[in-house]
């Protein structure tokens, strides 16, 4: 543990990608542990222009070094009437009260917790449907002050504290995570707690930490679970851009990505056949809508062949022909590859025979969810021999087919979802460095390194592109973009992506993206129109409620607008088809407006590609917290729901259902033009901006010089097209064109 600047008012950013509406981390706690949706990058940058790279590969923490634990460690829990210890838990099955009991804690955080703590009087949780659990009672503390707490949950959960709703959240059952909240306690005074949970294979727990002294809470404090020594690098610079450049000097420069990567990506979970993918691409070309990249997600292999790198010939009869057909239509294709291998495959056996496979998961008899379930594990990438084997196996069967980009999924890696932490560490070790806990976080860095090293050796003149679900310090040097994992189609999760992507970008990882519309959906949004449900781990219904579908369409519409102004513009998700013509089917106005935003992205390609080039040549950042460009504006430092896209555009996404206006803060020190109306506003004020469904608030800083081009089907369609320059008067400005 090492702390600096106790009592500071400096703002802190970076730390990777998180999902808790946190922008300025001063006074916050951040767990740096890889998880689906969470990318732990132990680099923090201050608005004062300095940065700190915490050089540790184990689970680490920013803020309070004490791990959060169940409420009973620190708090006194009582029944609603105060007469009994613990919280009163009521279990309802099919709407009827089935059991009432006192519980020491809310403790269904991991699968083993569910197995061990679920009431024996009821059927096992996995065998019950239509279940609702309600916990009620009070909590008190002898330590007055603001206490930090976390709801760890999946499925539906609604939390109320002292009669006020704190959150109403949903996540798919197999991917829970933390939701932060704070509670003010007076000494020994009970605070009411009410939690309602509707499990469907999910998890739930509430964790807690006592308050820190104010000076310690407001500090730059880093800690780690394990280390031979405390190692860190302090970066001194004149600006946040300079500190990020220093981080890249230490960990590796971001290479120049191919231009097509900044076009539009169409993806879904998943195209089940070769023809489905080609039909989707063909539909975009037929309609004249821009598209540069199409994606083949997982499960293109035979059911029992995960890790074989073989295509299922019944569904993908000609993989090379697939690649060639995509290229013939002037598009690129990205393929999903994993570090996961079924134990029956020759590739698994090669790794295992040389000691490069983590075999504990197989030895435990753990089977995945596909078909009948198959024994599986992940390779250990922490030796050069293992990395060489990994790339060679991919090259022989996949790389040589001519795919353009590589989607390295599950790079945390999530070997067995919802394992207790102590069990999970055994599944990801040992390595040449020792136990799994020592190398908990850098798997994505090392495994993508195996891929990029091989690609650069075999294709030295090609700009490479890798998409990873996780990231760690230095991952940008491997030509990696990180996406925010398996988010959900909910408005609060759209909101989460704004701070998540901005802080990931300020972590020195400039290429970031997200699943437009959210990866997973509540059943009320599902129409059952994509393949079988078994590999999706959900049950769809044939026809959704019209009111729900209206919300689903608006959510996608707003998310799409946001996506057009993020580093990588990518539509993806499961169950519901994600192509524009499917998402907006029957809604001509929505379809036309989505296409308008799509075409705007391509009109702005000269500006976007120049901003992208700055990430390589100038260590720049595309998605910028307001503090980067307005460090002297104290209000700008804490704005969570806006950002700069390059030096000129201020983006204010819409993230509430049926909202048709929002408050937008225009930073001081500049004048601002409304992109849609041309109206000029003075900075340093919050304004109410109209935002009908077809419009996302977007402003251009006075003095900006915006380079634009024609709408094209793909980014290189018209290489000699004239560039149109728009000058936003009111201040001196400089622009470059790459």
From TrEMBL:
SMART domains registered for this protein in UniProt: PA14
Location of the PA14 domain: 82-230
GO molecular function: carbohydrate binding; hydrolase activity, hydrolyzing O-glycosyl compounds
Gene Ontology process terms (BP): carbohydrate metabolic process
Domain of life: Bacteria
Keywords, comma-separated and alphabetical: Glycosidase, Hydrolase
Entry-linked PROSITE patterns: PA14
Protein family: Belongs to the glycosyl hydrolase 31 family.
Name this protein carries in UniProt: Alpha-xylosidase
Organism in which the protein naturally occurs: Massilia aurea
């Amino acid at each position: 543990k090492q702390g600096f600047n106790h009592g500071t008012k400096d703002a802190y950013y970076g730390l990777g990608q998180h999902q808790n509406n946190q922008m300025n981390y001063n006074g916050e706690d951040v767990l740096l542990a890889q998880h689906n949706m969470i990318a732990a990058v132990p680099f923090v940058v201050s608005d004062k222009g300095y940065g700190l790279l915490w050089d540790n590969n184990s689970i680490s923490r920013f803020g309070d070094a004490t791990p959060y634990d169940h409420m009973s460690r620190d708090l006194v829990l009582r029944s609603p009437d105060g007469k009994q210890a613990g919280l009163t838990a009521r279990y309802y099955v099919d709407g009827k009260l089935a059991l009432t009991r006192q519980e020491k804690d809310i403790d269904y955080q991991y699968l083993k917790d569910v197995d061990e703590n679920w009431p024996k009087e009821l059927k096992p949780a996995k065998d019950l449907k239509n279940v609702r659990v309600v916990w009620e009672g009070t909590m008190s503390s002898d330590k007055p002050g603001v206490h930090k707490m976390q709801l760890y949950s999946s499925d539906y959960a609604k939390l109320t504290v002292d009669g006020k709703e704190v959150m109403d959240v949903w996540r798919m059952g197999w991917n829970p995570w933390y939701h932060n909240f704070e509670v003010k306690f007076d000494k020994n005074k009970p605070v009411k707690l009410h939690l309602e949970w509707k499990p469907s294979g999910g998890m739930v727990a509430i964790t807690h930490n006592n308050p820190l002294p104010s000076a310690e809470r407001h500090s730059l404090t880093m800690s780690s679970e394990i280390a031979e020594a405390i190692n860190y690098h302090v970066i001194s610079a004149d600006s946040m851009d300079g500190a990020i450049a220093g981080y890249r000097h230490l960990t590796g420069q971001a290479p120049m990505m191919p231009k097509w990567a900044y076009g539009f990506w169409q993806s879904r979970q998943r195209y089940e056949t070769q023809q489905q993918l080609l039909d989707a691409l063909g539909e975009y070309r037929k309609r004249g809508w821009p598209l540069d990249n199409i994606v083949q997600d997982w499960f293109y292999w035979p059911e029992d062949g995960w890790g074989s790198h073989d295509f299922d010939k019944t569904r993908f009869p000609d993989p090379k022909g697939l690649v060639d057909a995509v290229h013939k239509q002037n598009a690129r294709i990205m393929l999903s590859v994993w570090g996961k291998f079924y134990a029956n495959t020759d590739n698994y056996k090669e790794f295992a025979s040389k000691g490069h496979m983590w075999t504990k998961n197989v030895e435990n008899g753990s089977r995945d969810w596909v078909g009948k379930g198959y024994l599986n594990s992940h390779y250990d990438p922490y030796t050069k021999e293992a990395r060489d084997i990994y790339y060679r196996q991919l090259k022989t069967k996949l790389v040589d087919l001519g795919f353009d980009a590589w989607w390295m999924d599950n790079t945390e890696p999530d070997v067995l979802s919802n394992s207790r932490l102590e069990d999970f560490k055994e599944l990801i070790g040992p390595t040449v460095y020792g136990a799994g806990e020592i190398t908990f976080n850098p798997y994505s860095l090392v495994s993508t390194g195996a891929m990029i090293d091989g690609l650069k050796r075999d294709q030295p003149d090609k700009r490479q592109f890798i998409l990873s679900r996780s990231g760690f310090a230095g991952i940008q040097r491997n030509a990696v973009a990180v996406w925010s994992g398996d988010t959900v189609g909910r408005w609060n999760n759209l909101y989460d992506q704004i701070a998540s992507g901005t802080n990931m970008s300020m972590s020195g990882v400039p290429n970031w993206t997200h699943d437009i519309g959210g990866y997973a959906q509540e059943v009320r949004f599902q129409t059952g129109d994509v393949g079988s449900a078994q590999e999706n781990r959900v049950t769809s219904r044939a026809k959704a409620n019209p009111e729900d579908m209206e919300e689903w369409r608006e959510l996608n519409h707003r998310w799409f607008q946001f996506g057009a102004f993020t580093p990588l513009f990518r539509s993806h998700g499961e169950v519901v088809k994600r192509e524009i013509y499917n998402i907006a089917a029957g809604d001509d106005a929505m379809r036309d407006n989505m296409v308008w935003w799509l075409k705007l992205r391509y009109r702005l390609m000269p500006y976007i590609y120049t901003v992208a080039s700055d990430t390589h040549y100038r260590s720049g950042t595309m998605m910028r917290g307001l503090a980067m460009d307005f460090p002297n504006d104290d209000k700008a430092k804490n704005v969570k729901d806006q950002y700069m896209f390059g030096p000129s555009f201020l983006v204010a996404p819409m993230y509430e259902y049926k909202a048709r206006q929002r408050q937008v803060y225009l930073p001081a020190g500049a004048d601002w033009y409304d992109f849609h109306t041309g109206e000029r506003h003075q900075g340093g004020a919050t304004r109410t901006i109209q935002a009908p469904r077809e419009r996302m608030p977007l402003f251009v800083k006075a003095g900006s010089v915006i380079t634009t081009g024609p709408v094209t089907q793909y980014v290189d369609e018209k290489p000699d097209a004239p560039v149109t320059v728009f000058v936003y008067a009111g201040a001196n400005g400089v622009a470059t064109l790459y």
